[in-house]
Design a protein that fits this description.
By secondary structure, the chain is α+β, with helices and mostly antiparallel strands. The chain is about 30% helix and about 25% strand. The longest helix has 23 residues.
Length: about 160
């Protein structure tokens, strides 16, 4: 029986990646007021973006959904690095998903579901969270998606 977040992640065929090194003067995540808050996490694997460009132009919705899942996994890695590991995260509180898109693109929530579904798959009911999905004109490095995450560590309430 799969019961812990790390067991669920493994059952999905995934593992937490190394935390992405900051590209400027900030930290990937920090603990404050009983929560762990991440910096914006991009959809990178081994330091390389999985896609570049704007959703609705160079990037399809399907690719953007996959990119959101990758960015979500990176956000979990950053949060876990401060919380004491993936199993030390009690619940996902909030996800903010930025989607670089064309002005007429309106499916930001569909893109954000790539990350939101990952959180539910890994944490079950504790992965259900509040969320904002926002269209923006451009993101760092021409990434199509960027995700910020707020989680609650175990033992905090």
């Amino acid at each position: 029986m799969v019961t812990t977040p790390s067991e669920r992640l493994s059952a999905l065929g995934l593992e937490l990646p190394p935390v992405a090194a900051p590209v400027a003067a900030y930290v990937p995540a920090t603990a404050t007021c009983g929560h762990v808050v991440t910096s914006g996490q991009l959809p990178t694997i081994a330091g390389e973006l999985v896609a570049r460009g704007k959703v609705g132009a160079e990037v399809s919705i399907e690719v953007a959904v996959d990119a959101a899942r990758v960015a979500g996994l990176n956000a979990l890695a950053a949060a876990a690095s401060v919380a004491g590991g993936l199993d030390s995260i009690a619940r996902v509180v909030k996800a903010t998903v930025f989607v670089a898109c064309t002005p007429d693109f309106t499916a930001q929530p569909q893109v954000a579901n790539g990350a939101s579904q990952l959180f539910v798959d890994v944490f079950g009911e504790a992965g259900q969270h509040v969320r904002s999905a926002v269209g923006v004109p451009v993101l760092p490095l021409d990434a199509p998606v960027e995700i910020e995450l707020v989680v609650e560590p175990v033992g905090v309430r």
